[in-house]
Amino acid sequence: LVPPEDIVGAISLGSAQWNLGRVAGPALAGLVIVGGSFSAAFAVNAVSFAAVIVSFFFVRLPPPVDPGAHVGILAHMGDGVRVVRSSPALRSAIGLIALAAAFTSPFIALVPAVAARLVDATGDAKAIAGATGVLTTAQGVGAVVAALVFPSLVASFGRRRMLLIVLFLTPFALVPYALAGSVPVAAAAIVVVGGAYICILSGLSAVVQLRAPAAYRGRILSLYFATLSVVFPLGALVQGVLARRVGLRATTIGGAVAMVAALAVIAIARPSVFRSLADEGIRHFSERSSILERRTS
Hints:
The chain is mainly alpha-helical. Helices cover about 80% and strands about 0% of the residues. Helix 9 (about 215-245) packs across helix 10. The radius of gyration is 21 Å and the shape is globular. The two termini are about 20 Å apart. Residues about 280-295 have low confidence and may be disordered.
């Protein structure tokens, strides 16, 4: 829908919109529940999807270029995997999102557990629910602000540099969040965590979209999001089990340390992984994409 130079901004705007919904959605649901019922909240949510359906009537796309239109789904997937394996940038983006999903993303699933720890001395179920709402909202606020600012930072300092910053900033920000002894302190820390984390998702997604040949972009994006969607719940499950055995703080900090250590090893042993995320070469990849499409058509 947008030209290459606007990819980062478009992805960041989509991320900001999604996280703004995470902030406003629970509050709106609460109003509907108070004025009606839980069933009414689900009904209103279902009706709201009409806006998405209507929006598609206004979308105009060029005819798809798909050299594998008449092959099976497994062949489609295989083509996508082969293209990813042939591109250092695509391999790097998918590998890094897997690292982030395994070691840092679980903080999202563990927000209620952090809330319960923070109010354990004083609170009941309502206090835990309130603390969970505060932390979730704070994370969403950080994500919205960062998503709106990130494209300008990428334009000023370069994609590779900004991705390196947020890849390291996210685990470092998890440490004060894990050590927080009160809801306000934890909320302030998770603002930073949420902002840095959404920049990882937006930045790596932009790399995938810019470097994937147009004819294979859908399949490669599917691999990227499938990696995130599979690794994140596994990481959350592992950290949840560890939190019950060694403690929530130790588990969160341990995940952050593992993330930093993995990034450090990559920087020393495989610096080409980070170099492949740089801005240069977008025109080269666009030209290569056009050549590939002509050859396969």
